[in-house]
Amino acid sequence: MTAELTTESDPRTPPGDTETRHGHRRRRSGGNGQARAAVLYLAPAGVLLIAVMAYPLYQLVQLSLYEYGQAQASGGAPLEFLGLGNYATLLSDSRFWMVLVNTCGFAAVCVLGSLSVGIALAVLAGRVRWLPRTLLFLAALGAWATPAVAGSTVWLFLFDQNFGLVNEVLSGLGWQGMEGFSWTYDRFTAFGLVAGEVIWCSFPFVMVTMYAGIKAIPGEIVEAASLDGASTWRTARSVLLPMLRPLLIIATIQSIIWDFKIFTQIYVMTDGGGIAGQNLVLNVYAYQEAFAGSNYGLGSAIGVVMTGLLLLITVIYLWAQRTTGENT
Amino acid sequence: MTTAARAPKRGLIGRVLPGKRPGRTLAEIATVLVAATIAFPLYWMVLTAFKPDGQIQSTDPRPWTLSPTLENFRQVFTVDDFGRYFLNSVIVAGVVVLISLVMSFLAAVALTRFRFRGRTVLLIMILVAQMVPVEALTIPLFFLMRSVGSVAPWFGLNHLGSLILVHLAFSLPFAIWMLRGFVAAVPAELEEAATLDGAGRFRFTWQVLFPLVAPGLVAMSVLSFIHAWNDFLFAKTFIISATENQTLPLAILVFFKPTGNDWGAIMAGSTLMTIPVLVFFVFVQRHLVSGIAGAVKA
User: Fold this and answer.
1) How does DSSP assign A61-81, residue by residue?
2) pTM for this structure?
3) Which residues contact B82 (CB under 8 A, 6 or more apart)?
4) Helix, strand or coil for residue B270?
């Protein structure tokens, strides 16, 4: 926000004056008027983002360096600077490592799941006529529109131990072991159930994005490729994929960002992190440490780790995309 | 694009992978089946909401009911103050959408149409802001809202204002990024023509640009609305003691009980919570799809 203020070297010159002397060129190349208008236009969003995002981010890092518990939060005890103490506590805690593995594995499954389902259905939607395509889009928009809590509750109910439709159907098909089976009891089935719900409500974004990309490719390019004797596979790989790459990057990054920090679904479906915390992910873990355990310092340290990891994964992905993009 | 010779019109993939007729019929049957599977949880939710108690708590669930009832809906409005929570959710999501519409539009205009030093830096900062896991900020935000509350109670803990502030800020980076492409797509000649006609910068912004980027604004509004409407974490953290200021996602949890979940009420509540978003989606779906397409093309 401060950067554009510096361009106002001579705010006194009236805009009309510049125009008569230098014509339109002066205005287009960035006169004072533009810089001043930019400040005005950016101010509301800028102030809010600094107050509610940048400053709390700074505070998060700061909090993570202190012993900050119930006593400190209520002002009853002085702050104690720990330096990297909270991080040392985390790194030596086996539970933290389990949560870290949970988070990365769960996010990876959700990202891969929503990407592959979304892309497959976008391709399918491009192959069929209007009516089936519209039905598919309506269903996908419905799943997309369902609030996370509502989606979680209905999936829980479908997979309910006693009254769920899924167990009933499976045991009806002759799989006797599924009668009264609890999906949320085991760590992996619980994660699988949540991942199913997450993929269900997040593939539509990928599908809509990729479908838009496929539609935007001019048919002439594909015809030219087939006239040149390129096989279907070759066309898809060498012509369509590079054209869809920017979209794929957007869809992947958005999925990583969303799935890495999922809170609601885990919290609702596994009742706050599963039996004995077996289904905790970083986000829920930080929440539990801070607000259930009044351990705000440690919770903040988890938040910092989470932020760092997410930025790292995104940057690595972008970098990998750039290098492969240059090679081909 | 479509010449008379190329009729019947086929999608791109149809042209790329020229499937034979039976192949397409098979693909269409598969599409309908997939659509039904995707829609099934929603169907089950609405159906259960209308089922009488005995049929819900049955170990032999059936995908239909011959005796629909409104009893579950009555339950959520009497046992839980659902109308109140519904209104709270509407206020939070509505205010967020309206304000972020203006804020992100103005910011997108500045970032695409004005030349000034530091523009690139700001653009990169907005990209990075999108990657910040806002949920990680819950702890500092909790303390921030606690101190804000002593100065401006409406924006402090236990008030809807705190939720509005947070969701507004969190929806901005993506909204700005999304609108950028739409604003950039408006040709510069148009601006020159407007200037020659005597329209100032502000008039051009509101009377020419604003209507032109409408598809982007709609798509952006939908995504901001969903974000605020869905929120569970911040409502759970900020609205601690003033239950009358709770929002919908938390209101449903009342019916999860250790002694046995009231699935009828839970599904009725979930249905009530989904319907506004669904209606919103159906109305704007055309703009939503073209909006996302426009944003990703940019």
Assistant:
1) HHHTTEE--HHHHTTSS--EE
2) 0.86
3) B76, B248, B251, B269, B272
4) helix
Classify residue A130 by burial, with Cβ atoms within 10 Å: 0-12, 13-18, 19+. exposed
Cα–Cα distance measured from residue A140 to residue B32, given in angstroms and rounded to the nearest whole number: 12
* B chain contacts of residue A303, beta-carbon cutoff 8 Å: 133, 136-139
Model confidence band, residue B118 (pLDDT cutoffs 50, 70, 90)? confident
CA–CA separation, A191 and A108 (whole Å): 12
Q: Enter the DSSP assignment of B18.
A: -
The pLDDT assigned to B111 comes to: 92
The tens digit of pLDDT for each residue in B134-189 reads: 889 999 999 999 999 889 888 989 999 999 999 999 999 989 988 988 888 888 88
Q: Cα distance from B262 to chain A (closest Cα, Å)?
A: 10
B10 falls within a domain: no
pLDDT tens digits for A117-157?
999 999 999 889 999 999 999 999 999 999 999 999 999 99
Cβ-nearest to B117 among A3, A28, A290: A3
Shortest Cα–Cα distance, A302 to chain B (Å):
8
Domain annotation covers residue B11: no
Report if residue B88 sits inside a domain: yes
Partners of A67 in the beta sheet?
A80
Contact B60 A303 (CB under 8 A): no
Angle in degrees, 0-180, between the axes of helices A94-127 and B21-50, rounded to the nearest 10: 130
What are the chain A neighbours of B220 within 8 Å (beta carbons)?
Answer: none
Cis peptide before A218 (omega within 30 of 0): no
- Mutate which of B16, B45, B82, B282 to disrupt the A interface (most A C-beta within 10 Å)? B16
State the average pLDDT over residues A291-310: 93
If one counts every other C-beta atom within 10 angstroms of the C-beta of residue A327, the result is: 6
Kindly state whether residues B32 and B93 are assigned to the same domain: no
Among B68, B101, B131, identify where a domain stops. B68
Q: Which residues of B touch A63 (CB under 8 A)?
A: 139-140
B54 and B147 in a single domain? The answer is no
Burial class (CB in 10 A: 0-12, 13-18, 19+), A118: buried
Reported as a pLDDT band with limits 50, 70 and 90, residue B297 is low
Average pLDDT over residues A162-175: 89
Among candidate residues B8, B40, B68, the one where a domain is terminated: B68
Residue A27 has pLDDT above 90, yes or no: no
Residue B207 lies in a domain: yes
- The mean pLDDT value of chain B amounts to 86
